[in-house]
Amino acid sequence: MIDQEKIQKAVRMILEGIGEDPDREGLQDTPARVAKMYGEVFSGLHCDPCDHLETCFYEEKHDEMVLIKDISIYSMCEHHLLPFYGKAHVAYIPNPEKITGLSKLVRVVETLSRRPQLQERLTTQIADTIVEKLDAKGVVVVIEAEHLCMTIRGVKKPGSTTVTSAVRGICRTNHLTRAEAFSLLKGTHR
Ligand SMILES: Nc1nc2c(ncn2[C@@H]2O[C@H](COP(=O)(O)OP(=O)(O)OP(=O)(O)O)[C@@H](O)[C@H]2O)c(=O)[nH]1
Ligand SMILES: [Zn+2]
Q1: 60-74 burial, b for 16+ CB within 10 Å, e for fewer?
Q2: Where is the GTP cyclohydrolase I domain (predicted)?
Q3: Of the residues 77, 117, 171, 180, which is catalytic?
Q4: How many CB atoms lie within 10 A of CB 139?
Q5: How does strand 82-93 pair with strand 66-77?
Q6: What is the pLDDT of residues 155-167, one digit of tens each?
Q7: Residue 119 near ligand 1, beta carbon < 6 Å
Q8: Which CATH code fits 4-41?
Q9: Which one of 15, 34, 37, 40 counts the least CB within 10 Å of its CB?
């Protein structure tokens, strides 16, 4: 579990480290606020994303592609503990015996985002969770994100977008299915 007391002590030390006075009025509650915030932004560390996929509709028998576009994501880069944020797009071809609720796919994205992450690992973990838990026939996950560690510091390139993808199952082996997923994603299917 998240140790709020430990985070509070550490934040106080950071404030001292940067030459601030942690006892001045505006900063007195900052360690507690930051500890609470970290509890929220890292809450996914203590959840199993598979738990969200227990809800399945066994009688629907849909076996065509389902795509959820433009899921907003906020995660934390594990190198600098700065946010990266943008959009995730999740497409899957269900095992007709295991169609899940749309919001459950979003919950998987949410749980895995709320951890210290790499964009590549986040993308891969979302795809693998859906394949493994739902026995999905195919999955495509694309994430487009801006990393604050490349914006407010370091190379300082605001507006740069990093795009990562993970492609599994028949979306990987069948080029027509893969093309369908990417055209739905780009909105060029009409
Ligand atoms: N592959 C990958 N790299 C990331 C991600 N988030 C941050 N990084 C990179 O992690 C690298 C860490 O490099 P280091 O040289 O150890 O750290 P640094 O001195 O702060 O690097 P600079 O950002 O180049 O100043 C940087 O190149 C970041 O851009 C991510 O999600 N995926
Ligand atoms: Zn970073």
Answers
A1: eeeeebbeeeebebe
A2: 7-185
A3: 77
A4: 26
A5: antiparallel
A6: 999 999 999 999 9
A7: yes
A8: 1.10.286.10
A9: 40
Global pTM value: 0.94
- Whether 63 is in the pocket of ligand 1, judged by its Cβ within 6 Å, is no
118 contacts 84 by C-beta, under 8 angstroms: no
Domains 4-41 and 51-186 share a fold: no
117 is catalytic: no
Q: Which residue has the tokens 């505006």?
A: 26
> Distances from the Cα of 112 to the Cαs of 31, 49, 78, 105, 179, in angstroms?
25, 7, 13, 11, 26
Which ligand 1 atom lies nearest to the CA of residue 77? 6
Q: Name the residue with the closest Cα to ligand 1, atom 29.
A: 150
Q: Which two tokens stand for residue 89?
A: 């797009």
Low-confidence ranges of the chain (pLDDT < 70): 188-190
Q: Where are the domains of the chain?
A: 4-41, 51-186
Domain with residues 51-186, CATH architecture: 2-Layer Sandwich (3.30)
User: What is 94-137 written as a DSSP string?
Assistant: --TT-EEPHHHHHHHHHHHHSSEE-HHHHHHHHHHHHHHHH--S
User: Residue 63: its pLDDT value, please?
Assistant: 85
- Shortest-distance ligand to the CA of residue 118: 1
Question: 47 an active-site residue?
Answer: no
